[in-house]
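Notebook p. 47: complex prediction with dinuclear copper ion.
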Amino acid sequence: MSGAAVGVLALAAGQNVLDPHSPPEHRITMLGWIMFVGSTIGLSVVAFLLLLGYFRRRRDSLPFGGGEKHATGLVIGLGIGLPLIILSALFVYSNIFVIQSTAAPNPRTTSMTVKVIGHQFWWELRYPGTTVVTANELHIPTLTRVNIKGTTDDVIHSFWVPELNRKIDLVPGQVGSILFYANRAGEYRGKCAEFCGLQHAHMDVIVFAQPRAQFDAWLRRQKAPAQATGMPGEQVFMNNGCANCHQIRGTAARGLVGPDLTHLASRTTLAAGTMANTRPQLEDWVRDPQHAKPGNKMPQVQMSQQDFTSLIDYLEALK
Ligand code: CUA
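Predicted complex, structure tokens below:
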């Protein structure tokens, strides 16, 4: 698929590859524009020459006058020489300016690390040095060099936030690494960019770039254990198998298959960006997870209406 088509598709999904918000992405976008403008000029010149040849074909002389030798010179110059010069220049430019800035960062030059772990079909996010584990919503401080280290728990995924940097493939057994540096606060939407199964298209990540103080406050809240202990829904959660797959720090729930739910209610979306995190959506999701996202690993659990209500009350209290 051409770069333009990828760009249009990404734009439709709420991302804009032409709206960079970090130094590496500025370089990628600039290279994209140079290639787009250059190839447009090249295409126009070739089209013009073709038309010229077409309209002058019935005349006795060659399109540009002169003899065969002159024509051969033109073909060699414009057909071989010029492309060689342009491609060499692009090679040097992209190596000096683009590849360097999008390369895996040296950990000594970054001030924090976030681990991104791809799962079918969601993102696990860990903040090394803290107990913080969350899912699908990646918070980073603005104007800070963040080392994103990506791995996968199952198949190949690709982590891509187009407004911040290029994509990194998450290949089993390997660690991918990339620099995130947000120029200003905002929400940057990303996607899984490698087909990974039935719900590949519903595997979004949202990056929240926040001013340092706001980020620190968020991190402090996330470090705390769950605040809702003792609610009736907690027992429902433990008795119905939820705890086998999900972790809620500060309780007996230690499952590591699905997303950490310690601060579920602090997140804006459910099911990796598939739905807003509101009570009706949360009820729909828990009642029938396979309806919203067929093929995901969350099973449907049968329980009484009373248990269901207390369970949702409990999950909503996990702020
Ligand atoms: Cu994960 Cu596609």
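Notes: The first helix runs from residue 3 to 12. Residues 118, 121, 157, 192, 194-196, 200, 203 surround dinuclear copper ion (CB under 6 Å).
Next step: compare against the earlier run before touching the bench.
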